[in-house]
User: Fold this.
Amino acid sequence: MRSTMNYFPRGGSDQDLGSRSIASICRVPLGMRRAGEDRARHAYDPKLVSIGPFHNGNPALKLMEEHKSHVISRGLERINRTRLLEANVNQEGAITTDSLAQAIEGLEPRARACYSEAFDIHSEKFRHMMVLDGLFIIEVFDRFRESNGGISWDEAEIDLIFRSRWILPMLMLDLIKLENQLPFFILEKLFDLTHTGNKSFSHTFTYLALYFYASFNPSMPKSCLTDHDSRGIVHLLELFHSVYKPTVNRSPRLDRRHSIGSIRDIQLADITFKRGQRNLLDIIYNRAGQAVLEIPQLLIDYSTGPLLRNLVALEQSTRSVSPYFTSYVNFFAELVNSPQDVEILRRGNVIVSLIGNDEEVATLLSNIRKEVILFERECYLSSVRHMIGERMASVWYQIQGRLKLILLDPFGKYVALLITIAALYLTIIQTIFTFLSYFRPRN
Assistant:
């Protein structure tokens, strides 16, 4: 049984809450859940595994819940074996789920306060849920790093998660869903308790998490694996969000909103576009000489919808993160107002789609921004929108752009040639009549 707390925490004092007084783990805004097609409405729900209290006990996730215990058991067995060999710890000092639940007892009020709802869950059960879910995440990250490092296991250790190719990508998506989160400080505490004293292990929990996510998301900056500050991070979704930051267009925000129109409208204003080579969010407009809009490549696959939806839901739910993805999705949704716009960007290698036809891509981007609020002064692309809007308002650039598009079209070239010949013919006739007028006697 639970009660809604209007996104404000319950269960701890101000001192317990740390630097943030507003609950950091909450449900997706109802309007966003209702927007879009039926398939999109379920992009916020875990498909394989429940993490935390929001979806705990969901019968649809029963299979992985049972397997979760197996993963944790194998993980603790491996951890204790390493501690026994390297840290000279006797069998009596072995780590168990009970000992870990006792170790995080003092963090329970702070952990409960991280959620936007008060859950009627007994203290001991709540702490064991934190431990089991946290250990599961840590073990998956640990095993994934080892498997990519060329560590071989015997057949008994290759379990359900690592045996099937489709499970890990789906698990990755479950672990970044807004309603499927654990407090980050709980994950770090459990990691420290289980890895302290392991001389053969030098990585941090943040590194393991980013290593896992980067393997499934080519757009993630690889620099985050060597230099990323996770201080102040509240959960895994926010950690994922924090690696994406625009390196350009960080000029002062503008209060006035400009409509940029679709990519076809932009071309009519004599603005060309090309694939950008920077980070995903680095959309650049260069108006020196030939106006060019640089857009980094966007890969549309099975993960794009859930990832963007949950990142935008996070930004809509808290002011503690900048609304970069809300700005990005709104910008892209304006560019692709129709399947024809998607085709233009796809031919320009700006969009790579693996999900179906161009209409599906246009619908996906359009639906993500439904029921989403963005103030122009918070939009990191406001200066780009402003410059494009100014150019599109110019009649001269509209005429110039339309003429160029006509000349680029094979049929348009033929029409332009006829117009040129006709104009030349009329010019010659006018010249002849002007010449003859000098010799014709005036009445």
Summary: The chain is about 50% helix and 5% strand.
